[in-house]
Amino acid sequence: MARIAMVYHSGYGHTAKVAEAVAKGLMEISGTQVDILPIDAEGNLPEQAWVILSGADGIIFGSPTYMSGPSWQFKKFADASSKPWSALLWKDKLFAGFTNSASMNGDKLSTLDYMFHLSQQHGGIWAGMGMLPSNTKAATRQDVNYIAGVSGLMTVSPADASVEEAPLSGELETARLFGQRIAQLAQRWSRV
């Protein structure tokens, strides 16, 4: 059994929708226990979250990209993770991350890079997408990995799109497949 904790912040509901798709993929892989830990509007975690994170085999980070980086609520969580850091509680865990922003690029890579470096501060092992982009002339926004994420999952929700409208189904399918990948890797990693 691999235990994966997903800790994320969602400002308007779009990133939560991506987290749901990732969680769906995680749960489709038998032998995977999933703990979903949303960060609230004040940057706080649910009760027992730190215990769950310390007991997980893998941790998935999620945040919207605001002004070229993660939300302040996610940063508050990251700063608070200095307590488990000082005891090396997350060392050798599998890590991955996802982000959503209003623009096609929107500096999402900066947010994923922040998450990557946070995982490395904790002595973790980072897992990227592991899938090719849809980059042919025939490709559309409904194709898997159209945004061409490599180091982590990237999705788009235009600024005027409701949660019902965005992210698009192709991006949510990419999120589901990303969840499956992380669950499969966590199972392999937990046996090491």
From TrEMBL:
Gene3D superfamilies: 3.40.50.360. InterPro entries: Flavodoxin/NO_synth, Flavoprotein-like_sf, FMN_Rdtase-like_dom. Pfam families: FMN_red. Keywords: Flavoprotein, FMN. This is Flavoprotein WrbA. It comes from Limnobaculum xujianqingii. Residues 4-183 form the Flavodoxin-like domain. The lineage of its organism: Bacteria, Pseudomonadati, Pseudomonadota, Gammaproteobacteria, Enterobacterales. The keyword Flavoprotein applies.
